[in-house]
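[Meeting: bench + compute handoff]

Bench side (C.D.) handed over the final construct sequence. Compute side (W.E.) agreed to return the predicted structure before the next meeting so the bench team could plan truncations. Sequence as handed over:
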Amino acid sequence: MEIVKDVVDDKVIKLQIGAEFDDVKKELSGFVELDIENQAHFVDIVNSVFEDGHVHVIVDMENVSYIDSSGLWALFEGHKKAAQRGGKLVLLNPTKDVRRVLDITKMSSKIQIFGTQVEALTGLVK
């Protein structure tokens, strides 16, 4: 799993998740699972975002094909840490299967989910 941090502004970071980073195209591609095997890496990246002084995080879930309970825990931990700092962690464009898990577990009632980055940025300032 590769995670790329994109600075949107001085308070907002977008985390893009994918299987591999293409140095030529400068983008992530390939589906990954946010599960027990890589949730610690995800948490480390989220923690580094907060340590760098950012308070808002957009997690781009477009390339996440599956999420288990440890992945849900990692998202919720990020959500709690953002809230403790007066910020938000929001999700962007989850796949159909991941969205279904988020809905079934009621995580979608705790963490805001958006279909576009513009909507996510608007949701962060509300």
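W.E. noted at the follow-up: The chain has a mean pLDDT of 94. C.D. will use this when planning the next construct.
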